[in-house]
Amino acid sequence: MGLFVCDNCECVDNTALGHFWAKNIVQMKGFELGTALCSECTPDEFANGEKHEADILTTPGKWHGRFPKEKWDGKIDVMNRKINPELLTGGKA
Ligand SMILES: [Zn+2]
């Protein structure tokens, strides 16, 4: 399971829980195609006007609660951002 950074709020979410793998195929209302969205930022409507229903894992517009919602600190490996090496070695960012 991978992690990614939400393009809207910059928080880290799991690729299985947020809108990540389908982001280049499925467009969400109010966002451009290709936008990665955490579960909380994912709207309950697709760009084409269809309703985005809750599933067993997530409810659109709500944080899933499986781990705390935290901003990406640049130190952990995520699918759609590069780690800042200066942060890892203790250097000043
Ligand atoms: Zn978000």
**Cα-based radius of gyration, to the nearest Å:** 14 Å
How would you classify the helix and strand content by structural class?
Answer: little secondary structure
Poorly predicted parts: none
Largest sheet: 2 strands, antiparallel
Name the helicity range.
Answer: under 10%
Distance between the termini: 28 Å
Strand content: 5-15%
Ions, cofactors and other ligands present here are: zinc ion
DSSP strand tally: 2
How many separate domains make up the residues?
A: 1
Q: What's the arrangement of strands in the largest beta sheet? A: 1-2
Question: How are helices and strands ordered from N to C?
Answer: EEH
Give an overview in words.
- This protein has one domain.
- Helices cover 4% and strands 6% of the residues.
- The mean pLDDT is 94.
- The chain has one helix at 85-88, and strands at 3-5, 12-14.
- It is elongated and about 45 Å long.
- The chain has 93 residues and is mostly loops.
- It binds zinc ion.
Give the key terms.
2 strands, little secondary structure, two-stranded antiparallel ribbon, 93 residues, single chain, binds zinc ion
